[in-house]
Amino acid sequence: MQNTSTDIGEISNVSFSGARDFELSLSDGASDEDDDDDMPLTLPTDSSHNGSIRKGCDPFAQTQRSKLQHRRARINQQINKEMRMRAGAENLFRATTNNKVKETVALELSFVNSNLQLLKEELEELNSNMEVYQTDSDAISVPMIPLGLKETKEVDFTVPIQDFICEHYGEDSSLYDKEIKELIELRQAMRTPSRNQAGLELLMEYYNQLYYLDQRFFSSHRNLGVHFHWYNMYDSLTGVPSSQRALAFEKGSVLFNIGALHTQIGARQDRSATAGIDKAIDAFQRAAGAFNYLKENFSNAPSLDMSALSLSMLVRLMVAQVQECVFERITITTRDTKVSSQLQLAQEAAQVSDVYSLVHQTMTQPLMKDYVPFSWASMVQVKSEHFRALSHYYAAAALCDHTVSSDREECDEESDKAFLKFYVNIASGQTLSLILQNPEKRRKLGKDHLRRAVMRHEEAMRVHSLCKILRKMDILQDVLCQTHKRALEKYLELDREDDFDEIAEAPEIQAHTQQKPDITPPSFTTVQVSDIFQRLGPLSVFCARARWGPPRVICLQKREGGMGLTLRGDSPVLVAGVVPGGCAEEAGLREGDYIVAVDGQDCKWAKHGEVVLMLTSSSDREVEISVVTLHSHDTQVERKAAMLSHSRDKENSRQRLLSGAKGQSSASLLNWNRKKKREGSGVAKKLGSTFSLSFGNIRDTEAIQSLEEFLNGFSSSSGFFRTEKARNCSGTSPGISVLVPVALTANMPR
């Protein structure tokens, strides 16, 4: 912004050649570093918002995945209906004293409960379905575990937003019907995203748009009255959606779906080639980053799928699937049969087995085992056993397929060192060295590994046979049977009729990986959006947190001495001073008013020079201007809320790309707390810092910590105010000394 001060009292002699822009930041008392942290990149243009909200949406897609999603949504609605019927019947049963009515109600309750049980079983089967998300490739590979999208009900923003625009902003709400319709269409479109990058961008676009929605319409002194309903991702016990009025719940659910869509994209990749494996690794790492972001920045979630325990399990599951993809890539790229290569494969397989074992432990915890689909837990256990078997198989291959005589080209010392680091516990290096140099002992040790491999494969097949959903997955059964057959055949090759030695237990293999999974946090700046409701004015001033007086229409008479007012800043232009006794003061114009229209032409986004030109170019002797007055925030309530929430709320961040910046700053997600619904919570938005919002009352306050600093500086007697000399643009009008708060002169993004 340019720093401009224009004396309209001498308006006829004004020259704009030396004018400087000046931006006044009164949105929430924060500095420029505090206001652009969470704001998606945007430009204040008047271009229409079309074309983008449909891209990435497949509302009428007839794929197996979309049919599954539609069936899940329909069953959720049916369960919700049956639950309401049961609640009403139970209330009637308790209220009535007529025995005949009680018998009828009891009979009806039995039918309702039976229907509920059938619906929940069907929903559980749908939530357990993994096959529809897998790749269509003919290559045989172990299936991955994807997540279905959270379902939500439609939300009609029309009446609440219209009322808020009319009462808070004092404008005709019918003028914003197009914007409201666009917002509703955007939310409707993001319910059915396509399973590709365009679908991810659609979800991210809506998430970024929620920032503007929060700033425009969610205030501390008024409840917008919009309820957001989201179904639990794998809740087959209740089927009832969680409902919250807080926008944090909406944001968290959208981010969960971003992570879920990444898992579906990863599961559909053809992992028979390195290109597909790399795409799958990237997708699962991004999914892990999304779930980890939720885990670190949300607390007291209203639904189990977004609880800390559930999100921790999902992060571990995604990391395990990344590790599995790393193993698959090594098996493809490793063409040689050297001892070191076989040992590397064995250790990689052991690493995959370990991480899946950790996931299985998390899934079987008391709070999770009743909610996690049984097919998921079974699949994880199958993979843990399967890859443990593979680790022993490759260990046997390294021992038995290479003898000392045949491996003269290899360095015997390197092989010995590799084996010394290969096992978890060994009796002594000398003993192992003797075993490796003796072909017969190598054969027996390899046979012990193969025996354990066969046993592990059989255990994986046993667990697989116990799950109805997994039995339907032919490709998984083919993988298990092939690997079991391969290990068994190799074991029979080494088995001898005269081998009467005591069976020894093969030592445990030390897990090790060449590539550790990297959790990739969500990048919120990849999709740039424009504020749908930008016609309301610059967000730094025209926001829900601001307290406005009623709009006033003032008629200014043009006199020979000028209009008697001084303007400063732009977008919007501020009345910085009013000449005592001038026509502006007589008309009712006050210092601190914002000019929003001149002769019926909106000028909230107009620059300083444009507004001055509007005032001076009118041929009439009278100019009609519309102004609004910004009242101070309820600082007492906000400071109290900040003290209550400062020690309780978790801070959070998301990366944000600033215009012209070389690096990235962090932005925010949200924090919720249903138990503290009546308490406010602070928002301190700072460049490279974080902020948090109370889930129970997300609209209470914004920029509390920055506001406290503002108030502390205001009470200070030194260093807060500076005197600025207004420029004498024409060379004839006298300079004006203006007291300008330092904290309010910083450049604030809108």
Automatic annotation (TrEMBL):
Residues 645-654 have a biased composition (Basic and acidic residues). PROSITE patterns: BRO1 (PS51180), PDZ (PS50106), REM_1 (PS51860). PANTHER family: RHOPHILIN (PTHR23031), RHOPHILIN-1 (PTHR23031:SF6). InterPro entries: BRO1_dom, BRO1_sf, HR1_rho-bd, HR1_rpt_sf, PDZ, PDZ_sf, RHPN1_2. Residues 143-539 form the BRO1 domain. CDD domains: HR1_Rhophilin-1, PDZ_rhophilin-like. Pfam families: BRO1 (PF03097), HR1 (PF02185), PDZ (PF00595). Keywords: Coiled coil. This is PDZ domain-containing protein. SMART domains: BRO1 (SM01041), Hr1 (SM00742), PDZ (SM00228). Residues 109-136 form a coiled coil. Residues 58-132 form the REM-1 domain. GO terms for biological process: negative regulation of stress fiber assembly; signal transduction. Residues 26-67, 645-665 are annotated as: Disordered. It comes from Gambusia affinis (Western mosquitofish). Residues 553-620 form the PDZ domain.
